[in-house]
Specification:
Shape: globular
Distance between the termini: 47 Å
Strand order of the largest sheet: 1-2-3-4-8-7-6-5
Number of strands: 8
């Protein structure tokens, strides 16, 4: 009995995220969707409640039209080869995520040992060449995960992105796809 009570408390404490007012797992209204990909499952998302961090958002839907992954793209930091403004924003947003979801489950912050982009002035270039990794992950027993990543566009421009994933619905969608592929043989 105590075990069930603990699980119920965890679900309440870790409510499903609603980035920009769109709740993971909910059916997304068509008026918020535009620019579908050819698969018809990934769309540009018009967030009803955007904030100053948001530049754009993308949503992946399952076959029922439910949001199973939402990626929020931050604004670009231009002419910032050292990544100073991008790093500052990263730390500010990370702190807000910690306040809401607790400490990250895992953090990655490293430069590949064989990278040629080792100087501080090459920070953004190392991001753009996928030689520097800066990502924090949160996982919840309530069925969602969050990944927060710093990305490089080129040697001088970078941005931060947050991915919200409904892990249970995503796994269900993968299983359905695998069954569909096997039935096709």
């Amino acid at each position: 009995m105590a075990f069930c009570l603990f699980l119920a408390m965890d679900v309440q404490a870790q409510e499903m995220p609603s980035p920009g007012g769109v709740k993971l797992g909910s059916v997304v209204p068509k008026k918020l969707l535009s620019d579908p990909t050819p698969s018809g499952k990934v769309y540009t998302l018009k967030l009803p409640k955007p904030n100053s961090f948001v530049n754009a958002a993308i949503v992946k839907l399952n076959s029922k039209g439910q949001a199973i992954r939402i990626v929020v793209l931050g604004r670009a930091h231009i002419d910032d080869a050292y990544g100073s403004s991008c790093k500052s924003e990263y730390e500010d947003v990370k702190q807000k995520l910690i306040e809401k979801y607790g400490s990250p489950t895992e953090s990655l912050d490293f430069l590949l040992s064989d990278s040629i982009w080792k100087e501080p002035r090459h920070f953004v270039m190392s991001l753009s060449k996928n030689e520097y990794v800066k990502t924090d992950y949160w996982t919840s027993s309530s069925g969602f995960s969050i990944d927060f990543t710093m990305r490089g566009i080129n040697g001088d421009n970078c941005y931060n992105e947050i991915g919200y994933e409904h892990t249970l619905l995503l796994k269900e969608e993968i299983v359905k796809q695998n069954i569909k592929e096997k039935e096709g043989f």
